[in-house]
Amino acid sequence: MSIYQTARFQVKKEALADCEAAIHKFLEYVRANEPKTILYISLQQSDDPTRFLHYFIFEDEAARDRHSNSIGIDHFTSILYPNLVEPVEFTEYTNFAST
Q: Exposed, middle or buried, 11 (CB in 10 Å: 0-12/13-18/19+)?
């Protein structure tokens, strides 16, 4: 069963460029190394570019575990986490309806 999650976070303004670069590099890693990550999208808030919403879908629990324990996530969070305004807010969803 697919797993749907979001990660909402805000970065420090002075670290925005570094965090944006880390996000781009991380999504390249996911695309190249995580075939069972069905979707990973990074949305940047229009009226406040320091705020992000990441939306991702994993094929199953094994895919989420692979993602969560990857060298890609380690590198990404080593840049992102020290530059956050507050901790990332993760939320898991179930697919209620889709087209």
A: buried
